[in-house]
Amino acid sequence: MAASVAKSRSLPGLLAQAALVVLVLALPLALDPNGYALFVATQLGVFVIAAIGLNLLAGYAGQVSLGHGAFIAIGAYATALLTVDHGWSFWLAALAGVVLSALMGVLMALPSFRLSTWYFAFITLAFAQVFEKMIVEWRGLTKGFAGVVGVQPPSVFGHVLDPAGVYWLVAVIAIIGFWLVNNLIRSRFGRGFVAVRDAPAAAQAAGASPARLKMLAFVIAACFAGVAGAFFAVQKTVVTPDDFTAEFSIFFLLTVVLGGLGTRWGPVVGALVFFLVPELLTGLESWRMMVYGAALLALMLFAPHGLVGAARSLFDRLRPKQTEPAAQPAETVPPEAAHVERPAISGLALEVKDLRKSFGGVVALGGVDLSVRPGTCAAIVGPNGSGKTTLLNVVGAYYRRDAGQVLLGGRETKGLSPQQIAGEGLGRTFQTPRLLGELTVLDNVLLGAYRRERASLAGTMLRLPAAASETARLRAEAMELLAFVGVADRADDLASETPHGHQRLVEIARALMGGARLIMLDEPAAGLSMTELDRLEQLIRRILALGATVVIVEHHLDLVASIASHVTVLDRGVVLASGAPQAVFADATVMAAYMGERALNEQAPGQAADDAATGDVSRPRPAPVEGA
Amino acid sequence: MSRTDRTILTAAGSIDRRSFLQLAGLAAAASAFGTGLAGGAAAAEPFRIGWVRPTTGRLVTSFNPLYMGGVMAVEEINAAGGILGRKIERVEEDDEALPSKEPGIVRKLRGAGINFVVGPTGSSQSLSSIAATTAAKMIQATYAAAAEAGDGKRYPYHYQLLFNTDQQAEICVDYMLKKQGLKKIGILQENTAFGEQATASTVKYLKKAGVEPASVQVYPINAPDLAAYVSNLQKAGVDGVIAWIANIPNAAMIFNTMKSLNWFPPVTGHSGLFLPSLFELVSPEAVKNVYGTYYKSFTWNATEQPGERQVAFAKKLAELPGAKNNEVNIAASPYYDFIHLLKHVIEQTKSFEVEDIRRALDSTRDYPGLLGKLSFTPENHSGIALADITLASVSSGVDKRAMGCMRERAPGL
Amino acid sequence: MDIDILARGLVAGSLYALVAVSFNILYRPTNVFNFAQGELVMLGAMVFASLATVLGWPWYAALIVTLLGVGLLTLLIDVVAVAPVLARSQHGTGWVITTLAASLIIANGVNRIWGPDPIVVRPPAPLTTDTFSLAGMTVSAYQIFLVLLTIVLVLAIEQVYRTRQGKAVLAVAEDREAALLRGVNPLRLSHWSFFLGGAFAGLTGVLAAPVLYASTGLGPALLLKGFAAAAVGSIGNNRGALIAGYLIGVTEALGASLLSPGYQEAVVFLLVLCVLLIWPHGLFGRPFARTV
Question: Could you tell me which chains touch chain A, where touching means 3 or more CB pairs under 8 A?
C-alpha cells in the first residue's frame, strides 16, 4: 500500500482525523458512566493499543507472531499483582509491566533472527500455549486459574479515575500511540521494517541490520502490548489465565490481518470489527469463531490487504480516473536528466586475493583474484554458473568466504557484516531488482540513506524539528538522484508499478543515496530495450565521471567492451582470463568457454545478452516482479 | 485455544446434552408463557434477578443442572403469586464459565438496574464476580465453595448457602484419620480457586492433627491425561487420597487410572463425584472406596433415613424434565434455598431495598433450608452448620434407595 | 530413572511422529505446513469414535469412512485455502493465515457438532488398554501395537517415496518449475498429497483415540507436538520425524516426572527452541546456502 508510508496529507484527511479524535474523546459524554457500553469502549481502546504495536511488528516488519497475548499478559499481570498484592501505584506497576514486556520482546526476537517466517510463527504459537499453561502452573506467583481479583483504577493528581476517566486515558494513549507509530513508519525505520519484510538483502545493501530492526520492532510492539496489558487489568479489574489463551494471541494477529496488515488504519479497523461486532451480535455468539474463520479465509483470498486495503481499492476504482501518468512511453529520457550536477565521489579500490567459496561439495569460487583501481570500471563475465554473482555476494559478505582476502579501499573486510561493508561505501544492485514494491520509488531511494540518517528513534517518533529538517534534506537529495538516473517523473509511483528497466535505475539511485563509493552492478542490462540500454550506458559513464568505482557483472559484451577498462572472465569458479576488453575478447579460448562453439561461430559479442538471465547459484530464479 | 480444547467428558455425552438443552428450552418457554399470563393480571413490575450461567463454552453441560433448583424455586414462587405481588423475572447472562467474563457481566446487570444476582458457578468465577458485585452493592449468591466467599466482612453483599472448603476439609480429614485410621494422606487437587482453597484447608486440618500430607498433586483441569498425577501419588506410598475434583471428566480419568493400576485407596472429595454420569465412564468397582461430602438430610445409614422434605423434593425432581441423572447436582445447589430465603426476608421486611434485605439476611437464624439450617451474621456469611454435613458413598448412587439425589453415608458415619 | 517414563514417552512419541509424518506428506510437494493438521487429527478421532463407539459400526468400516472423510476435507482445504494463495505467490506465507483460518473453522464446527464431551474409544479385539507388567514397565497390548505400527507405517511411507510417483513428489518439492517442464503436474500432485496427508492425519486420530479419549480438544496440543517432531527431525524427513517423536515423547515424560506434569509443554518447547536455534533445519536436515 503506497499510502502506508506515503507522505501526502490532504486537508480533508486531516480534518477527518481531527473529527474522529473529537468523536472518540466526546464518547463518554453520550454514555452512561457506569454502563456496559463504556466498559466495552474502554476495552476496545485497550485492544487498539496492542493491535497498533502488533501491526508494526507483523504488518511492517513482517514477523508473524502468534504469541502476542503473552506480552499483554505480562503487562496485565505485573500491574495487577504489583498494585493488588504489593500496594504499588498504578503508574509504577504499569511501568514495570512495560519493562518486563519489552524484555520478553527481546527474548522473542532472538529466534526470529534464525528461523524463517512460518517456523517462527509456529514457535510463537507454541510459546503462547506454553505461556498460558505456565500462568496456571505458577500458582504461587499468578494465583492460578482464579487469577488476580480487585485491580483498582489509577489515580491522577490524587483523584481516583472513574470509568470515564479510565476511558479518556486509554483513548488518549491510543491516539498518541497511533501518531507515534505513524511517524515511525514514515521514517527510515519504517522503510527498514518494510525492507526486512520484503527484501532483507536490500536492507543489508542499504546498511540496515535486519536483526536490529527486528529487535526494534519486537521491543516497540512489546511495549505497546505492555501498556495495553496494564490498562486491560484496570479496565477488567480481574486478570485471569483465561484472558490470555493461545486463541487470544491468534485472534490478535487475525485482528490485524482483518483490518489490513501493514496499513495505518488496519489495527484500528480490525480491532473495532473483531471485538465490537460480537457485542452487537450476542445471539450469534456460538457461531462467532466459525464466522471469523470464514471471514478471514475470504479476506486472505480476495483482499490480502484486509478491510482497509479492500476499502481503498474500492475507493480507487470508484474515483474518476485521472490522466494516466503511465500513458507516456516509459522509455523517454527526460532531457534534463543529463544535466543534474552531483558532488564528486572518491572511488574505492577493490582487491580480491585467492578468494574461495564452496557450497556443500560444489566449488563456486576456486581462488579468484581481482583488482579494481579507484574510479575505474571493471567487468566480470562468464557463463552461467561460473561464480560471478557468488563473487559479488562474497565481496559484500552476503556469503561467508571459505578463504582468501577482500580489501576494500585497502582495508580487509573479514568479519564485517553486509550492512557494515555497505557503510564502508560499497553499494550494489541485484540481478532481480530488490525494490520494496509497496513503497514509492522515492521511498526506495530514501532507504539507501538508512545509515546516513542521524535522527534518534525518539526524535523520529516525536517528529522533533531536527529529525523533520533532516528528512526534508534527504528527500530533496533523493529527488535529485532520481533526476540524475533519469526517473524523477516516477518519484511518487509505487515501485512495483514502475517498468522493469526503471527499477534497475532506482536501485542505482538507492546505492548512490547510501554514499556508495564502489558500486557493484549485477547484470544491470538484462532485459533492457535498446533505448534503455543506451541510457544505462550513459548513466554508468556519468557515475564513473563523478569518480566512483564500478564493478559490473554482465552478459552484454557490447556494453562491457564499451565501458569497462578491465575485464575478468570467470569459468567454473576460476579466472580464465583478465585484462583489457579488446585483448580478452580476442582470445578464442575465452569465447569458446563463454558461449560455446556454436555461439562463437554464429554470434558476435552483444547478442549474448539475449540469453535468459538466470541466477548463478541455483536459487532464487528471478521471479517476475509484480506489476512490472 | 484453551477454550475449545478442554477434555471435559461429562459422561452423558453430547447426545444427552442436546436433549437436555431442548428440554431446558421447553421449560424456559413454558415458564415465559406462564409469567406472560400472570404479568397481564398483576400490573406490578417484575422483580428482576440477574441469572449468571454459561450457555456457551465447555462447562455448559456440567453447570446448567445447578441452576434447575433455582428455576424450580422461581416457578414455585411465581405460581403462588410472586413476592409481595411481584413476579420474579430471570435476566440471563452467559459467562461462558470464565472468570474473565464476570466483571463485564456485573457491569451489564448493574447498567440494567438489577440489584440481585444468582450465580455464577465455580469458585474462580465467583470470586471474580463477587469483587465486582461488592463494589456495586448487589446482593448475590454464588456456587462457590471457597471459604473466602463466606467472609461477610470482605464481601458484605455475598451469601454462601453451601458448605465451604473449610467445612469439607474438616469432614474429610476427620474421616481419613479417625474413622479409617490412615496416616499417609495424599492430596489430589484441580488447579482452580476451589482446589486451591480446599487443599489449603486440608493441609491446615491435617497439621492440626499432627500429620503432613505425603504428596500434593495439582493438575490443570484441561490436562488431556491425568495418569502421571495418580501414579505420582501411588509412588509416594499414600494410603488415602483427599481429592478435590469438581468435574466428572477429570474424576473419570483419575478413577480409570486407579483401576488400570489396580490401586483402590479410600478417596474422599467433593459432592460433584456423585453424578451418575460417572458410571458411564467408570465401572462401579473403580469407585467402591470413593466418598463425597454431602448434606446429612439427603443421606441414610442403617438407623437414619433422609428428611421428609428432601424426599418430597426428590419426588418432584423425578418429574422434572431434564433432571434425570443430574439430581444430585440440582439438590446440592444453593440456588433453590437462596430464592426462597430471599422471598422470606423480603416479605419479612416488606422492602425490595438492598440495604434492608442485607440487614435482614445478616440476622437470619436457623432458617429451614433444604440443605440444612441457615444462619448468617454480619461477619459470617457461610450459612451451613458443620453438623449438617457428612460423607456419603459414591457407589451407593446405583442403590434403589438413592432416588436420584439420596446417598448412603460412608461406613462409620 | 523410572522405566515407566520410557514406555509413556515411546507411546506419546509414536503419536507425535505420526502427526509429523502427516505434516511431511503434505509438505513435500507443496512446501506448505498445514496449521489445520492438529484439528484434522482431532476430527479423525471424533468421526471414528462416533461411528465405532456411538453408532457401533465395525471398526474397519468406521476406519475407511474416517480416512476418506478427513482426506476429502483436507483436499477441500487445498482447493479453497491453499492453492489460490500459492497461485498468487509461490513464496508468500499467506497460507499460514489461510490454514489457520481453516483450523478455526474445523475446530469450532466440530465443537458445535459434538460438544466438548469426550468419547471413550476401545481398541478392536484382541487389543485392549488393560495394563500388564513387561520388563518392569506398565504397558497395554494396544500401546505395544501402536508403537510397532508407527514404525511399520514410517518405513512403508519411505518405500512409497521410492516409487515413480513418489519421486515426482520429491522433484516438485525441489523445484516446481523444473518438474513442470518434465511433465509433472504439480497441482495434481499437491491435491493428492493433501488428500493423503489428510487421510494420514485421520488415521493418526483413530490410533490416538484409545490412548487419549476422542475429544474436540485434541487438536492444538497434537499440532504443536507434531510440528516439534517434524521440525526437530527435519521437515520432510520421516525417519527423522520418528526419532524426533520419540525424543520429544521421552523428554516430555521425563519433565512430567522430574518437575511436574504441568511443565511438560514447557520442557518440550525449550527442547525444540534449543534444537532449532542450533540447527535451524533440524537434526537430520541438509544445510542449504543462503542466496541473494
Answer: B, C
Residues A368-397, buried b or exposed e (16+ Cβ, 10 A)? bebebebbbbbbbbbbebbbbbbbbbbbbb
The closest CB to that of C261, out of B6, B57, B229, belongs to B229
Is position A148 within any domain? yes
**Residue A140 CB neighbours (<10 A):** 7
Residue C64 in domain: yes
Structural domain containing residue A131? 31-246
**Span B13-164+318-385: which CATH code?**
3.40.50.2300
Å from C137 to nearest chain B CA?
A: 12
Question: CB of B362 within 8 A of CB of B376?
Answer: yes
Asked if residue A99 is part of any domain, the answer here is yes
Number of domains chain A is built from? 2
For A262-309, how does the pLDDT look when each residue is reduced to its tens digit (9 = 90+)?
Answer: 888 999 999 888 877 777 766 666 677 788 788 888 888 888 788 888
Question: Residue A626 CB: number of other CB atoms within 10 A?
Answer: 13
DSSP run (H or E) holding B374: strand B373-374
Percent of chain A with pLDDT over 90: 41
Each residue's pLDDT tens digit, C86-122? 887 766 668 888 998 999 899 888 888 887 777 778 8
**pLDDT tens per residue across span C160-195:** 888 877 777 777 766 666 666 666 777 888 898 899
Q: Does domain B166-304+389-408 have CATH number 1.10.1040.10?
A: no
- Collect all residues of chain A within an 8 Å Cβ-Cβ radius of residue B108: 36, 39
pLDDT of residue A316: 81
Burial A332-367 (b: 16+ CB within 10 A, else e): eeeeebeebebeebebbbbbbeebbbebeeebbbbe
Question: Which residue has 575485464 as its cell numbers?
Answer: A567
A140 at B interface, C-beta within 8 A: no
Q: What is the 3-state secondary structure (H, E, C) of chain C?
A: CCHHHHHHHHHHHHHHHHHHHHHHHHHHHHCCCCCCHHHHHHHHHHHHHHHHHHCCCCHHHHHHHHHHHHHHHHHHHHHHHHHHHHHHCCCCCHHHHHHHHHHHHHHHHHHHHHCCCCECCCCCCCCCCCEEEECCEEEEHHHHHHHHHHHHHHHHHHHHCCCHHHHHHHHHHHCHHHHHHCCCCHHHHHHHHHHHHHHHHHHHHHHHHHHHCECCCCHHHHHHHHHHHHHHCCCCCHHHHHHHHHHHHHHHHHHHHHCCHHHHHHHHHHHHHHHHHHCCCCCCCCCCCCCC
Nearest to B392 by CA among B267, B303, B213: B267
Give pLDDT tens digits for B277-303: 788 778 888 888 999 999 999 999 989
- Average pLDDT of A393-407? 92
Q: What is the mean pLDDT of chain C?
A: 85
Cβ atoms A67, A249 nearer than 8 A? yes
Contacts of B41 (CB under 8 A, 6+ apart): none
**Does the distance separating the beta carbons of B2 and A132 come in below 8 Å?**
yes
| C-alpha span between B314 and B292 (Å, rounded) | 19
In chain A, the residue whose alpha carbon lies closest to the alpha carbon of B222 is A133
CA–CA dist B41, B281 (Å, integer): 49
- Pairing mode, if any, of strands B389-393 and B290-295? antiparallel
pLDDT in tens, B206-249: 999 999 999 999 887 766 678 888 988 998 899 999 999 987 77
Distance CA B132, CA B120 (A): 12
Distance between CA C157 and CA C138 in Å, rounded? 30
Count of CA atoms in the C-beta half-sphere (13 A) of A555: 23
Report if residue C206 sits inside a domain: yes
Cα→Cα distances A416→A202, B24, B245, C121, Å: 17, 72, 61, 61
